[in-house]
Amino acid sequence: MSSETAAPASVSTHILDTSVGRPAEGVALTLSVRSGSDGAWTAHGASRTDADGRCKDLPALPEGTTHVRLDFAVEEYFGSHQHSTHQQAEEQQDAPRVRDSGAFFPEVAITFAVKPGEHYHVPLLLNPFGYSVYRGS
């Protein structure tokens, strides 16, 4: 199938707060797109993670998109969940007893290449002091 007749690429994501072993609900994110490595970024969509930490409502990518950037606003999430996260961590045997306030990374920006007709699921494993991301299924 040529790129002219291929279905548009699509993106979904979810966030797991690994500091408590639960989905990260209510994290705001924006999706930006560009065509070519030197193209300008254009905002294309915005959403918030649901109770399962998932964001399933991002729009299909415009034709010609070669790169996508997901920007996760995690500082607000950790600020609003600081008390409950700390309390849950204390209940876990191996969890650290003292935490800094907020998050070391106030935002997480993930940039990746896309091809027409493919779906990209990009999970974010998050804690106040680090994160990991991968291409899921």
Describe this structure in words.
Pfam families: Transthyretin. Keywords: Hydrolase, Purine metabolism. Belongs to the transthyretin family. 5-hydroxyisourate hydrolase subfamily. It catalyses: 5-hydroxyisourate + H2O = 5-hydroxy-2-oxo-4-ureido-2,5-dihydro-1H-imidazole-5-carboxylate + H(+). Homotetramer. This protein has one domain: Immunoglobulin-like. It is mainly beta and 137 residues long. It contains one helix and nine strands; from the N terminus they run ββββββαβββ. The mean pLDDT is 86. It has one helix at residues 74-91; strands at 10-17, 22-23, 28-34, 42-48, 54-55, 67-73, 108-113, 119-127, 130-133. Strands 1, 2, 5, 8 and 9 form a five-stranded mixed sheet that branches. The chain has a four-stranded antiparallel sheet with strand order 4-3-6-7.
